Amino acid sequence: MGVGRLSASSYRFDNVVIRSQAAVVGPKEGEGPLGKYFDRIWPSELNHHTSSEEAELALLTEAQNLALVKAGVEWSQVDLVMGGDLLDQLIATDFAARGHQRPLAGLFSACAVFTESVGLGAMIIAGGGPTVVLAAASSHHMSAERQFRYPIELGYQRTPTAAWTSTAAGACLLVEGRPVKEPDLIIESATFGRVIDWGTKNPNDMATAMAPAAFDTIKQHLRDVGRDISYYDQVYTGDLGVLGVKLLDAMARQEGLDWSSYLDDCGKSLYDTQRQDVHNGGSGPGCSASVFSGFLCRQLRSKEFRRVLLVSTGALFSPTSYKQGESIPAIAHAVAISRMN
Amino acid sequence: MAKVRKLSPEMKKYQNMAGRLRPGKPIVKNAVAAFFVGGLICSVGQGAQWFFMRHGMTPKEATSPTTVVMIGVGALLTGLGWYDRVVKVGGMGGSLPITGFSNAMVAPAMDSRTEGLVLGVGAKLFTVAGPVLTYGLAAAFVVGLLRYLITGVA
After folding, report:
1. What is the CATH topology of the domain spanning A3-176?
2. ipTM score of the complex?
């Protein structure tokens, strides 16, 4: 079989390929530094849809469809759809499945759901289960604001540590097989994270809540695959943002590790944090999904990068839990992706 | 619910480090912006009051129509999608005047209209302003009661 157990957290895969990927984003994300890497950029946040929830559903559906079109695969050939979003009861992912009518495994780990989907998808493909899996994640700025923060038009000042939930969706088509088409991308391994809670309570500072989880998962991953961080050209965390990357780097330094030149972050890269007024950077499941599917996959295929570790990070709080005084638990899942040749 | 979780020394050390690395709020800049934005809104209100006084109202009579005008201005700017930018710059200078109250009522109404007039707008209208109204009324009751007990005037 094509799956090898490295530890209770990590698995290695022999025969899982990313056949295609697609990223569809909102206008603000399109204006960011990675704008040219995305497949489609919406002209407005709602793009003629009547509600922000409906818009997110359309955004996700567009990314899923596009990933299939790029691979020349029909929906009927997809064995399993995996993924998630931030909305209560996973309505974007679930309602998209009402349209495509393929078997669905809806997942939730907040903004870490993209790597959870890709990692699990790779594992079940390598384990001899389904052979074609579509992994996707989405978020929409307005639907997330409504659910987690305030009404869109309500005026308030964001704190400098606040993140900007991105309007973005990303989808990857995972298939069983040896890499054939050059340059196919292979999923080498995945590490599933533990829930780490170091007592951060401020929902406007998810970077501080999530950085220890990212650190724990990256450390575990490197130990399990028996490599140094330099094995990867770059390690991309999901949405730690400006502050989170600093914290991650500082934590590594405290253990005598110099990771600084290898660390970057999808949320920090998605926007121009100086010009676009997003404070700590982008967040949301769609953030790492779109930056990976748009930017990182292209960098890998165009031979800019040989090997990347994607570590999506999720803050697992709810609007109820933080009001009750609970601290914010966080999780990070890692997948290692490399170019075959 | 286990609200008070004991932090280990490692966690405390981390939280201290995060406190040092965390960017601070630009308090002076915010305060100056709040002064000018709040001042500007109040000046507009004063202008409205003078307008009504010029048309034959006493200062006390002019208060009500002035309030109505300012609520209307706040609602209009919210509807146009501009008032959130005012508050973004002005902070409490934009939130505290009655235009800010108007914003706090109109924003949830706009936001929840997709859920219908009853379960959406009707139910969500007071989600932001509700606490202010609740405790404002409670405080008014307490102050009114004290006034009655001390002065004997209802």
Report:
1. Peroxisomal Thiolase; Chain A, domain 1 (3.40.47)
2. 0.90
